[in-house]
Amino acid sequence: VNTNARIVIVGCGISGVAAAQRLVKAGFHNVRIVEATARSGGRIKTGRLGANWIHGPSEENPVYHLARQYGLLDPEALTPENQAMDVGGHPPWVPNIFSSSGRKLNVEDLYPALEMFAELLDESSEFQSRGGEPWTNVGDFIRSKVQQRAAEKWKDIDGTTRSLRLSVISNMLKVECSVNGAHSMDEVGLGAYGLYKTLPGLDCTFPGGYEGLVKNLMSVLPAGLVTYSQPVRCVHWNNTEKRGYPVTVECDDGNKIAADHVIVTVPLGYLKKHHSTLFHPPLPLHKLHSIQRLGFGTNNKILVEFDSPWWDTDCEVIHLVWEDEDAMVDQVPDVQRYWIKKLFGFTVLKPTERYGHVLCGWIAGHESEYMETLPEQEVSHAVTQLIRRFTGNPTITPRRIMRSQWFHDPWTCGSYTHPGKGCSAQDLQNMMEPLPTKSSQSQPLQVLFAGEATHPCYFSTVHGAVLTGWREADRLISHYSSSSSSELTMS
Ligand code: 6YU
Predict the structure, then answer these.
(1) Region 156-175: what's the mean pLDDT?
(2) Which of 27, 122, 445, 483 is most buried (CB neighbours < 10 A)?
(3) Strand 31-34, strand 447-449: pairing
(4) Strand 261-264 and strand 7-10: pairing?
């Protein structure tokens, strides 16, 4: 291949690293990454504040593959049984469920609601192939179906139990806001919900932290390939000046880098906010509209450590059900006053011998964005009051807390991608389409697009991001492999 092509990768998250690794391996020696922050990894972050699990750890998952190769996983995750388990994106965790009146609820009593909700999620993902969906969004679909089915199936149960089950549905909707990275399930498109695909395998974590993956992948890159603390201000493409290079990457400090190809890996949240200044000439309209239609919401973690557990030994997830929420709601009426009601509960960090008694709280949406603006002490106070209320134990006091602030991260502007209302597979195709688009006569593949938001079915995940980095590297590799021999400089 033409190893002399100048390739600039914008962003040193896992997709940028994956692209660089594959290009370097193929013999390209004029590759560099420019990264806005002082570190690599992007949304994979130390301190467990970013990506958490390998979703679907099995053969087809590149992250699982790499993690196994680098020896980063516990033996349990490597077993064939673990890989074969098909959980459809929702691991069968052992729950503890508490209610706002300070009671620990009997999980069996709530099964009818939990099962109905799981069924409806499955049904939500079937529309894409059929078309003609009855509602524009997943929230409305689920609410209307629960109403219908509850009227038939729960007609003989008492009002209190029925109301509690509906409150459980509210809690499950909030869980889905976190899973999908959406403010509300009313903002997730029903027709496109099924675009997201899962892989087999029971979700697992990295005992030494997710950043081990980035570190290992980066170890094959030549020293100095990444320039840190170098935000890119504008990608000038279709350069008309006859100086040879079709693209110029202009940095915040005025530095200009000439390139044959630029792979843009910035998050969708950043693109939404800065597309008009990041590209010159501006993006074609169909691409811009897809950036706008796709959703990019906020999901944050609140890590809370305790001296001793107040949950069962086998418990893996804790749900907090508000008894006044039988209207199946996933948004609070007054964000400043009630933001904490959006926190659906906690996952338990396991094993305890490794982490101590640590819970990871999950909060999505505008409530989460507001939480980011509060002093840590205030967040700690709200979480403490919440736990005391739901357990009925006024003495529980966390040892310390730590939270993520993804919405106010200037280089991310949120957490991850979900299909918004009116989205279709075409939007993800538009996201990954290189510039200039085919009809143009100018030099091809000037600007390429990778990153989580450009994967057709694994958006919002690390494995999706890795695959997009490799995809764009391969696009360039095959471009040069098939170019005329006069352009070739064999290494
Ligand atoms: C996963 C999980 N996980 C929790 C939380 C978050 C995410 N994800 P990057 O942003 O990494 O890199 C871009 C770089 O560009 C970055 O370094 C910037 O600084 C830089 N940059 C920006 N602007 C620049 C400029 N102008 N100049 C130069 N540089 C610039 N994924 O697999 N397992 O458990 C989680 C989770 C709190 C925030 C996650 C998880 C998402 C991944 O973290 C994310 O996809 C990748 O790291 C992105 O890599 P990248 O390279 O693309 O961007 C329908 C339906 C859907 C259902 N979806 C459910 C899926 C579940 C999603 N799971 C999420 C769960 C958690 C909890």
Answers:
(1) 97
(2) 445
(3) unpaired
(4) parallel
322 & 391 share domain: yes
Mean local confidence (pLDDT), 199-209: 95
**Residue 448's pLDDT is what?**
98
Determine the atom of ligand 1 nearest the C-alpha atom of 12.
Answer: 17
Q: In ligand 1, which atom is closest to the CA atom of 232?
A: 27
Tens digit of each residue's pLDDT (9 = 90 or more) over 43-76: 999 888 999 999 999 999 999 999 999 999 999 9
**Same-domain pairing of 141 and 177:** yes
Q: From CA 190, how far away is CA 192, in angstroms rounded?
A: 6
Probe residue for ligand 1, chosen from 52, 300, 423 as the CB with the greatest number of ligand atoms within 8 Å: 52
CATH number reported for the structural domain that contains residue 288 in this entry: 3.50.50.60
* CA of 12 relative to ligand 1 center, distance in Å: 12
Tell me the C-alpha distance between 468 and 18, whole Å.
Answer: 8
**Is residue 61 assigned to a domain?**
no
**How much is the pLDDT for 129?**
62
Residue 47 is predicted with a pLDDT of 85
Query: Which is more confidently placed, 487 or 278?
Result: 278
Q: 185 with 230, same domain?
A: no
What is the torsional sign of CA 470, 177, 93, 356? Answer: positive
By three-state DSSP, how is residue 296 classified? strand
The domain boundary residue, chosen from 403, 433, 459: 403
Domain containing residue 183 = 95-197+299-403
Number of domains comprising the chain: 2
Residue nearest to atom 8 of ligand 1 (CA): 51
